[in-house]
Each structure stands twice: as C-alpha cells, then as structure tokens.
Design brief:
The chain contains 3 helices and 4 strands; from the N terminus they run H-E-E-H-E-E-H. It has 92 residues and is α+β, with helices and mostly antiparallel strands. It has one domain: Aspartate Aminotransferase, domain 1 (Alpha-Beta Complex), CATH 3.90.1150. It is globular and about 35 Å long.
Length: 92
C-alpha cells in the first residue's frame, strides 16, 4: 500500500507543478486526491469546466458563495494529466 500512496503523491506533486504553469489557474497545496484551483485572469470557472467537458476532460467547478470561481482537479493517471494539460493549453 505505501507504494500506491507514494505514487499518488508523486502524481499529485507533478499535477500541482503543471497547474502552477497555467496562467489563469492558482492551485492550492492539497493533502487530498484533488487540487483546488482559483480561476483568475477573467476566465469563468463554469465555462472552463464546460469547455473542458466538450474536449472529454472532466473537472468540477464550484458555484457556492465561498468557492465561486474555483475548480477542483482530481489526481488521476499520468495519461489523464497529459490530456488535461493538452486541453488547458487551448486557452492560452
């Protein structure tokens, strides 16, 4: 089991670093299996979620008062991270 946890932790660290490179996302460090990101630069979190969904990538956006303008990105397999980053590059 520790191997699974360390692999997941490494993938989360890699995903976090990649998300930091996206100019309109401000990711927060996480102890969970997802990374919360503030959507910045005038981009709409809900529209980002919808646009990514049309490309086959699913993320979650929040519409409640405290988290409006945020999205949640789950830590997945390396191929999921690669697909996410490829799609995000369409926006910058």
């Amino acid at each position: 089991m520790p191997e699974c946890e360390s692999g997941s932790g490494a993938r989360k660290g890699e995903l976090f670093n990649l998300l930091k490179e996206v100019p309109f996302l401000d990711p927060y460090p996480s102890y969970s299996n997802f990374i919360l990101c503030k959507v910045t630069s005038g981009m709409d979190a809900k529209k980002l979620k919808e646009d990514l969904a049309t490309m086959g990538v699913m993320i979650r956006h929040y519409n409640n008062k405290g988290l409006k303008g945020y999205v949640r990105v789950s830590v997945g397999k390396p191929e999921h991270t690669k697909a996410l980053m490829k799609c995000l590059k369409h926006f910058y």
